[in-house]
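Two folds, back to back.
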Amino acid sequence: MQFKSIFILLFITLNSFGQGGTFGKDPIIQQENFDKQRVHWGYFLGFSSYNYQFNYLTVGKDIELKTSTGFNVGLVGNLRLNEFLDLRFEPGFYATQRNLVYPDIANSVDKLREVKAANLHFPLLLKYSALRTGNVRPYLLGGVSSTLNLGSNEKAPDDNFSDRFRVKTWTQNYEIGFGLDLYLEYFKFSPSIRGVFGMNDELIRDNDPNSPWTGNIQSMKTRAVFINFTFH
């Protein structure tokens, strides 16, 4: 499922609520005291698209990156700091794949490197919420995170000459995003979109410094987009 289809589905869902009494002109106020809780919990499901930002040592043909849509699942712990600020911890599992295509390599097998990842993601975020209007409350959020890549191959002795692409096991990121809290009859539903920006170089170089796969890469950092649907 592509992100465009997800947005269309979300728009249709919100529109159907808006036609009724939940988000209409005179909505029935629901979950009125929900945000007064000191601590509350939830879970999320979602989709993600991972990318890499490459910087090169010398000018040449860029590595072509083909991304795919992955899935996310995780938990949410929310600590209320005041009326507008919350501290959130959102540990989750993110499965994804990135395919790197090297235009200067002729052999079709060596030309492609599949970078699969099973990530445990640990973000600590500050959430700033606007004033609630009826059953809708927009918010911004940002913070830092650490990611554990269970399939990094960091300690593997083999490298790309044995068809093994290696990246670091742990990476650090900063994140920014926005979303909506929608107060329904029995729970709070919060769709959000977030950008993730890796801060450290993740690449493990091949043993040969002139490797056609890693020799010209100065740095390789994660760039990702998360679309999460949170239920409280």
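---
second:
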Amino acid sequence: MTDNAKNVPVLMYHHVHPLKSPLNVQPDVFERQLATLKNAGYRSLTIEQFADYMNGAPVPDKSVLITFDDGYLNNYTYAYPLLKKYGMTGVLFVVTGWVGDGLPRPTTANADAGDLPASYVHEESKHLVASGETDKVILRWSELQEMDASGVMQIHSHTHTHTRWDKMAADRDEKIARISAELAQCRQLIGQHLGKQDDFICWPQGFFDDDYKQAAREQGFRYFFTTDAYGFNRPLGDKENIYRIAVSNRSGKWLLNRLFYARDTIAGRLYGKFKKWKKLRREAKKRAREAQA
């Protein structure tokens, strides 16, 4: 093993299916990304290895953590077989209130293309969930159990309903009560169906504040995953603010280039500061337009 990595980038995916659309990486592109990572010497960590790293244990310099948000069926149909093919591991943060029951459905590893479940773009997936047709787009417990038992795709918490209670609650007391209940129910269901005590939470829509963090601590969570891309996950770093990089439907070469700037180097720090400045500038302009409307 080389010297301990200065930082470990965490990759963030949502969908993996054939339709070209926002928040989706097509299966052939995803495969090329995995092949490129492997050929470049990258190793995907398990979430336990990542947690150990955050607590000071060494990992190879070229290490990444691969994560998926929400619990879409296409993560099982397309992503799971490809991770297995390339000897890589992933982490799926599931919204437990959306998960259904039933037998596992076909994947690319055991069925022809015509027998695979239908694919839906992100906005349509959200509509189907909102209308109660979650089984068309969301995983079942049997599929989650299969993936988690394999060690290829580890399952962890993304709350119970994916609700932004900071926006929906009438006041702060209700917000705290609601998010606490969500976290408790999610963690309880992960334990019931997968037989594990979950220490890892991924925040819905990336939002969190001090109330959310305190509620998570009280429920037993120790590692908090965000959607903030502009920082570094270092040994003995902040386990309650784990940075993640959104992966686009782009080439393996693009991903390697993005990982170059995700490393804790002078170039990486300058890139992060510049991108964060641009993001804050966009948000300030948006607020100004809304104030004038």
